[in-house]
């Protein structure tokens, strides 16, 4: 019996690996021409990620794994600095912690959010990019190596700060440069924009002329609270890359050869619109299931097949 113990432990470890207890890898990439300070808020009751906030220089990326069933949100803080007393703060996306890590605090609106619920209903990961709390930075979420009907990229990859209506525009302290764009709810605090009070159901809360500006520019992102149908995406067994300021031309190359975009899925960016200073004409998003993206999930697949073969062999 004693000599069987190592084998037993080995098998138990394999079982653990294959029973869905496989972590998800997040890669956060900064393709902006400036430093971004990502913030992370885990949902209540889930084990947190190893970090809740850090600096990401132009061109840098950071990789970490999330535990099973993790849920929470990522956003980018911009124009951050530390004052003479050592207090850290940001012009957009600030979490109010006074330091680099957000330690349980969320983003002050307006901020573009990438929201995740891993291993939810049906074992699927649910994710979206939301402009419900406004917009501050272009963000793209790309599933890597996942499967499923609407396992596709989502995000808001255009610069809405320039195109923001003046009533919603947040400008830098120094002057007129737009640094963020408020949601109508944030700007006007009225129930029809916030989907609250008499407007707290999908039937009563309709898109507003303001939310439609967001939706037209970023058809896959949430533009108001009940925008679920065109804005919630699902994947099984994916890892995720979250990119700040994705370059349209690069992303287009990365997504070529993908034919499995569900026809019901809206384009990632609205290429019938014209954006200042950017040639975005041919850039419509499609899923990025890189064939070389063999992550932890592929390994788990190989392991489970091995276990299955071993079990079968035991029967005879
Ligand atoms: C794209 O923009 C055009 C022009 O503003 C608009 O008519 C159309 O509905 C938009 N498409 C989507 C998918 O939002
Ligand atoms: C993705 O799938 C979910 C679950 O089936 C569905 O609720 C949602 O509408 C789909 N999203 C899109 C953009 O097709």
TrEMBL record:
<dbReference type="InterPro" id="IPR037176">
    <property type="entry name" value="Osmotin/thaumatin-like_sf"/>
</dbReference>
<protein>
    <submittedName>
        <fullName>Pathogenesis-related thaumatin-like protein 3.5</fullName>
    </submittedName>
</protein>
<dbReference type="InterPro" id="IPR001938">
    <property type="entry name" value="Thaumatin"/>
</dbReference>
<feature type="disulfide bond">
    <location>
        <begin position="95"/>
        <end position="102"/>
    </location>
</feature>
<feature type="disulfide bond">
    <location>
        <begin position="156"/>
        <end position="218"/>
    </location>
</feature>
<comment type="similarity">
    <text>Belongs to the thaumatin family.</text>
</comment>
<dbReference type="GO" id="GO:0005576">
    <property type="term" value="C:extracellular region"/>
</dbReference>
<feature type="region of interest" description="Disordered">
    <location>
        <begin position="250"/>
        <end position="269"/>
    </location>
</feature>
<feature type="disulfide bond">
    <location>
        <begin position="195"/>
        <end position="205"/>
    </location>
</feature>
<keyword id="KW-0732">Signal</keyword>
<feature type="disulfide bond">
    <location>
        <begin position="164"/>
        <end position="181"/>
    </location>
</feature>
<keyword id="KW-1015">Disulfide bond</keyword>
<dbReference type="InterPro" id="IPR017949">
    <property type="entry name" value="Thaumatin_CS"/>
</dbReference>
<feature type="disulfide bond">
    <location>
        <begin position="185"/>
        <end position="194"/>
    </location>
</feature>
<feature type="disulfide bond">
    <location>
        <begin position="80"/>
        <end position="90"/>
    </location>
</feature>
<feature type="disulfide bond">
    <location>
        <begin position="151"/>
        <end position="235"/>
    </location>
</feature>
<feature type="signal peptide">
    <location>
        <begin position="1"/>
        <end position="20"/>
    </location>
</feature>
<keyword id="KW-0964">Secreted</keyword>
<dbReference type="Pfam" id="PF00314">
    <property type="entry name" value="Thaumatin"/>
</dbReference>
<feature type="disulfide bond">
    <location>
        <begin position="32"/>
        <end position="245"/>
    </location>
</feature>
